[in-house]
Amino acid sequence: MQTNAALVKEWQRVGDLLLQGxxxxxxxxxxxxxxxxxxxxxxxxxxxxxxxxxxxxxxxxFALLMKLILMSLCFPKNRILLGRQYLSDxxxxxLPDLFEILPSNLYKYRVKDNIISFFNGSEIILMxxxxxxxxxxxxIKKAQQKIKxxxxxxxxxDQLEEIDKxxxxxxxxxxxxxxxxxxxxxxxxxxxxxxxxxxFKKDTKKxxxxxxxxxxxxxxxxxxxxxxxxxxxxxxxxxxxxxGTWSPDILVxxxxxxxxxxxxxxAMVKKPLKVRQGCEIYEEYKISRSYQMGVDPSEGSVDPSxxxxxxxxxxxxxxxxxxxxxxxLINKVQFLYEEYGHPLIIPExxxxxxxxxxxxxxxxxxxxxxxxxxxxxQTEKLGFWTDYQSKQALIANFQKLLRINYPKIxxxxxxxxxxxxxxxxxxxxxxxxAQRNYHDDDVMSTLLGYxxxxxxxxxxxxxxxxxxxxxxxxxxx
Length: 477
Ligand SMILES: Nc1ncnc2c1ncn2[C@@H]1O[C@H](COP(=O)(O)OP(=O)(O)OP(=O)(O)O)[C@@H](O)[C@H]1O
Ligand SMILES: [Mg+2]
Known about the structure:
- The chain is α/β, with parallel strands linked by helices.
- Helices cover 36% and strands 21% of the residues.
- The chain has helices at residues 5-19, 37-44, 60-74, 87-101, 137-148, 165-172, 196-202, 224-231, 235-241, 248-251, 259-266, 326-339, 353-360, 388-403, 412-419, 441-449, 455-464; strands at 25-28, 31-34, 49-54, 79-84, 107-110, 115-118, 123-128, 154-157, 184-189, 208-213, 274-276, 279-281, 291-296, 305-311, 316-322, 344-347, 367-372, 377-382, 421-423, 432-434.
- The strands form five sheets. The chain has an eight-stranded mixed β-sheet with strand order 5-6-7-4-8-9-3-10, with helices on one face. It has a six-stranded mixed β-sheet with strand order 11-12-15-14-13-16. A two-stranded antiparallel ribbon has the order 1-2.
- Magnesium ion binds at residues 60-61, 158.
């Protein structure tokens, strides 16, 4: 390995061009590589966290390796972590490509230490990140300890979808090397359902740079038969794995409610008239309507709680969603109860719901009939008890209403949750629930709010009451 000052200088000059965004490609080992426009954008970005996602073969890993090489060669004494889930993925899948591109006189690979050291003092530390996220607690601690001793200029992770957010967060705290022009996390992924969707795309955090690329963006470097094979799949597959589209609805194979209905609801989205006590109001109380209120309670910090107020003409007129204690949630319920003329409250009574039901038992609360085996008779219980069967009934009820275009929902979060509300095998979810990393609280309170509410029933009730205003009137069905 050469350690010559002239070479260090030469690469530093390339570094200056890199910092100015003037590198279109690079010659290494006598081969000239041209970057695709997407690759160039990724390589040029000096944003703290860069994520390059997209279709198969769209040139993500190549761009990642090129940037890794440039940041090692252009900035002397840099220290960079290169990780994948397992160390064997790094050595088997990444290193052969890296060493094919990198001239052998520039580096030494210390196999035992898992370190690549360069002529200019830069080092790449190879790491299997799985040690930080699974296994015994003491192993996780050890791995985290090892990370804590690092002062990194950058970390590079290929296939971020395999990595827990906690690992990413731990690495972000290591980016504090001072002798390099910028510090950075560079990552790639395919469109998958995992935490980075929220972090980079949905609730974009600051200091992030997100870039999509399609297989077609890299077609110059691929063979036609490879592309033909990829295109020989269903539309949704091509959308995701060729075009690289990353959106919640494309990630889901078996959503509970039909896409066409969700699209119709989405078209209704609008801003609330106002927000009062943290509750979004979409339509004020009308004396000629009756109302129902669905409540999905949750214990404070784990999941949000959600309230949906539904009018007898099928509109979701108000909502609340937030991380809140049960006493706090009871206050919200009481507030909306007064605002909407004492609607029938349909709270889930499982788990955290028991305390909620206890707190609102003097209001008008939905009663379910429960068969008491010992006494061989039906008894009334407050609230909606969710089990596998009653959840199916709740879903079927809403599905029926969707078919007649009865529900009108205006808030975006509920619609988004519908898009990720799937049939699942996860025991806890009782047949259906949110995809991993998504919530379904707004869906659940909405389904509860529409429970057994339909135009016919509203009409029958109105008739029974001789067309008098029907608020406060329905209880059983
Ligand atoms: N600028 C380039 N010049 C030459 N070859 C390239 C270039 N970009 C990508 N390639 C080649 O194209 C092929 C696909 O690129 P790459 O492996 O980076 O895709 P990818 O997006 O990581 O795919 P996957 O999603 O399957 O991991 C590889 O053989 C790679 O070497
Ligand atoms: Mg790749």
